[in-house]
Amino acid sequence: MKKVPILEEALEEYLSSLYGKEVKVISLMEFRGDETGEELKGFGYGRPVLIEFACEGETERVVLHTMSPNIFGHERMSDRACGLLLDHANFNKLIRHVRSIDVGAFTEEGGLISLGKAGEFFLLTEYVPGRLYFRDLQRIASEGKLRGRDEDRVISLADYLAEIHAVKKEAPELYRRRIRDLLGHGEGIMGLTDSYPRDFALAPPGFLEEVEKKCIAWRWRIKDKAHRLSQVHGDFHPWNVLFREGTDFTLLDRSRGEWGEPGDDLTAMSINYLFFSLQAYGRLEGPFRRLFLLFWERYLELTGDEEVLTVVQPFYAWRGLVIASPIWYPKLPQEVRKRLFNFVKNVLDTEIFDVRNVNDLL
């Protein structure tokens, strides 16, 4: 367990700010719930610390809790922050429960920051000019043909993924987590199936249950392929790509962590060539078939990752449920939805995804 020095001066400053009075720390002890251990000069994440301090002539005690990394959904720092924020929000709503006083964070220098009065967290980013890539796909659907830059842009996207996916990480528990989240996370497959109206005739509960069961079987098939854990974007679709002139682009909204399965990024982008083609032609055809094949073939040529064709099936099912959703796309023609649901069901029955015969799955 990593040991971090406790800076008493920083702790006193934090507590004084929190209580609005001058605080003097008396002792720091390891705390085991109903007893104290040895006096501490440093603490390990996940081990509570009993803090005894003096304030206006009175002696007070509080317990400082942290959370250590583990394989039960706490692999990332943001996971652990989420857990502690949830504790602070919920402890005081339950009778006979120990009360939460505050929630905060450590700085890299050992200081403490109070977050107890925070409302929603926010993200501030730079502004980047450009035009979202989905507008290219809309234009291709309208014109029925490719322009000179269209193939170049697809190649640039495939090249980019090949480059970032080349960065690997050895963390089997994290790969399993990402595959588990694909199914059970609120943004994943089960979150989507739960979002479908129960009276939606094209995807009734029995169909969605069947999809979930097939995806669980896929989880057991692929969850131990930890050698595939790679640097990923996590939401690599045309609404998150800003193009400028030629093939110059910037990405938006990286999601769900730094590491994951390359098939996630590949399916997120490529299913949109199918999506726009279905709306234009009722099948993968014409310019969109060209872009779909170019994207896949370029990536496979650069990476040699033929194994990805044996793991993309549940990722395609997930993305298919997104674009077929009556919530996300309420005006989608019924026939397009039917073909997308066929795709979801049939791709899950496919051992090796055949990039050249997608229409067989519709």
Notes on the protein architecture:
This protein has helices at about 10-20, 75-90, 135-145, 150-165, 170-185, 190-195, 205-220, 260-280, 285-305, 315-325, 335-345; strands at about 5, 25-30, 35-40, 40-45, 50-55, 60-65, 105, 110-115, 130, 230, 240-245, 250, 260. It is an alpha+beta fold. The chain folds into 2 domains: about 5-115, no CATH class; about 130-360, Aminoglycoside 3'-phosphotransferase, Chain: A, domain 2, CATH 3.90.1200.10. The strands form 5 sheets. It has a 4-stranded antiparallel beta sheet with strand order 3-2-5-6, covered by helices on one side. Helix 3 (about 135-145) runs parallel beside helix 8, helix 8 (about 260-280) packs antiparallel against helix 9 (about 285-305) and helix 8 packs across helix 10 (about 315-325). The mean pLDDT is about 90.
